[in-house]
Amino acid sequence: MSCIEIEKSISDERIYLNRRAPGKGPKIYEGRMDMDDRQIIELYNERSEAAISETADKYGKYCHYIAYNILYNEQDSEECVNDTWFRAWNTIPPQQPNKLSAFLGKITRNLALDRYKFYNREKRGKGQTSLVLEELSECISAGNSTEQEMDERLLVEALNTFLRSLSPQKRQILVRRYWYLSSVKEIAMDFNVSESSVKTILHRIRIKLKHFLEKEGIVI
Amino acid sequence: MSEEKLLDAFGQIEEEFIEEADPEKKRNTSKKVRRNVWVTCGATAACAVLLVGIAIPQLMEKGAVTGAPESPQLEGNISDVTAEEGEAEAGMAGEPTTLTHMTEIQIRIEEMLPDGFVGTIEVGTDIFKAGTQISVIAQDNVTVVQKDGSIFAYDEVEPNIPESDLTIGNSVWVGFQKYDYIDGNGKYNQIFAYHVVDRNDGAATDIEPMEELSMEAAVTDERFGNLFPTIILDGYELQDTVAVLNDTVLVASFYNKALDDELTIRIAEQEWFMNQQNDLKLNTIMYREKNSGTDSYIYIAGEENIVQYTFSKTDIAENERFYDMVYSASYFSECIDYPDIDVKE
User: Fold this and answer.
1) Mean pLDDT for the stretch of residues B175-189
2) pTM above 0.80?
3) pLDDT score at B127
4) What radius of gyration do chain A's Cα atoms show?
5) In angstroms, what CA-CA distances link B80 with B96, B110, B145, B151?
């Protein structure tokens, strides 16, 4: 076996592309869907009761999916979804959501998590919520007790920045897991990858998120 | 509890991210149809016409893909292209169906173009195979009007790395949205590449099937262990686990917080590395300058495999302990002659 002879070489090729103006990144949307949402919001503005039935028709399944992932209980999920319509009725107008699905989804998610916390104050129940909370605990830095806790607004800003830095696929997987609380199995099926790959992806992103928050000086 | 606070904060992320990840959008397809699409595509290489993204015609010119379809050369305003102009038969018949996939491939840049680059796929997919030469062209403000009246619009394409990092020899990840429109005649449609990301840390795609190893297991692994160092430089901590992808390549990433330096070790058969880089130089320290620093890397030959070491910041040539690490691998345990380093200016 021969030992190694080393020589030093440096590539001196430098070629630059013309810089493009920075953008927000690609967005993909279907024109038809936006018009339907506008019509529904108009019903809210006109205080037409059809607003609720139209919303339930279009987003009932979506909101139920979110609630059920958190609560794992049919009755509680139904109640959350109904509360969502009630909240939407009371906030539109003056709110005029740009993305109705996300607007409603956030309401449902918050309602479901509040109910989950109320039911499970001291113990972790079954279902995705307890698993997700365990996973997210990996992102928490030990930190310095003398450091001041950042307010939630800054944490959210940091999360958005972090999410923006991810590839779309990884971002979607992360959001599916920690916003929609979808199961790993379901995510794997929808993204056509193995469950092991999803777990690895999530694990790596959690590590990166932890480092990112530490670098930003954010203590949770 | 802090994790609850983080979960709550997740609840307030931007709505575009929530909408992007909508499960219903992901499931707006038949799994069976998708699987058939891939099989057919693989059998006939009936991959789509590329709009913002990978130019298959150039692929064909270079003879890199066997059985690649005859796809039209795309020039000019992409909004002129409609679903009817997509070609390459998928061999599928039935009701019109739309599928969307997002995936990424890793490409090593070999030639720059005015609005993109040509390179070889290092980490591919079932359609775009590793070793294939391919070109990536980015175009802005693409609007595509489909047969069924739906409109898909893409905002301005923005590479996620400074363009000065798009240099020959660099490896970048190209993300593309694959949109398959399968009409009654079973014709494919377009593929878009909409972002280019520099993730040149040697790590392969997370989409690949992966086997996780501990450091101890890596050293004793039958396939790659004889080239894996038993001693790692001080201060470098293993990130995640050692990964073996597709039983083909071992990847281990380490990070030195004090130096803000990343070390990546990759081990694979010579042929695999040769497919990545035609002019690969063994046992030679190479440098690659980027905005964020200068990579130094080296390919060292074993009997059947090659081990690649890459540092994102520090210089291999100036690291006195580097060879201690390299030679700690069992393959080199019999090497007692350390060469005089001949540095060429």
Assistant:
1) 41
2) no
3) 55
4) 22
5) 21, 30, 9, 13
Structure tokens at B16: 């575009």
Whether complex ipTM tops 0.95: no
The verdict on a CB contact (< 8 Å) between A190 and B27 is yes
pLDDT for A27 equals 30
CA atoms of B341 and B335, how far apart (whole Å)? 16
Q: What is the dihedral of CA B66, B71, B73, B78, to 10 degrees?
A: -130
Could you say which residues of chain A have pLDDT below 70? 1-35, 121-127, 142-150, 220
Q: How far is A98 from chain B (nearest CA, A)?
A: 9
Question: Largest Cα–Cα distance in chain B?
Answer: 72
Q: CA-nearest residue of chain A to B179?
A: A28
AA identity, residue B34: R
Element (H, E) at B301: strand B293-301
Asked if the Cβ–Cβ distance from B9 to A152 is below 8 Å, we say yes
**Residues in chain B closer than 8 A to A196 (CB atoms):** 209-210
Question: What does the radius of gyration of chain B's CA atoms come to, in whole angstroms?
Answer: 23
Angle, alpha carbons A104-A106-A109 (nearest 5°)? 110
B-interface mutation test, from A62, A65, A169, most B Cβ less than 10 A away: A169
- Facing residue for B7 by CB, picked from A32, A97, A132: A132
How close is the nearest chain A Cα to the Cα of B248, in Å?
16
**Beta carbons of A175 and B18 less than 8 Å apart:** yes
Distance from the Cα of A209 to chain B's closest Cα (Å) equals: 11
Please give, rounded to a whole number of angstroms, the shortest distance from the CA of A216 to a CA of chain B: 15
Nearest-angstrom CA–CA distance, B225 and B229? 8
Cα torsion through A162, A166, A170, A176, rounded to 10: 40
User: Strand B261-269's sheet: what is its strand order?
Assistant: B210-213, B236-245, B249-256, B261-269, B305-311, B293-301, B286-290
Query: Is B210 close to A196, i.e. CB distance below 8 A?
Result: yes
- CA pair distance B292, B312, nearest whole angstrom: 9
Taking an 8 Å cut-off on Cβ atoms, the answer to whether B17 and A13 are in contact is: no
Is residue A209 within 8 A of residue A166, CB to CB? The reply is no
Helix (H, G, I), strand (E, B) or coil at A2: coil
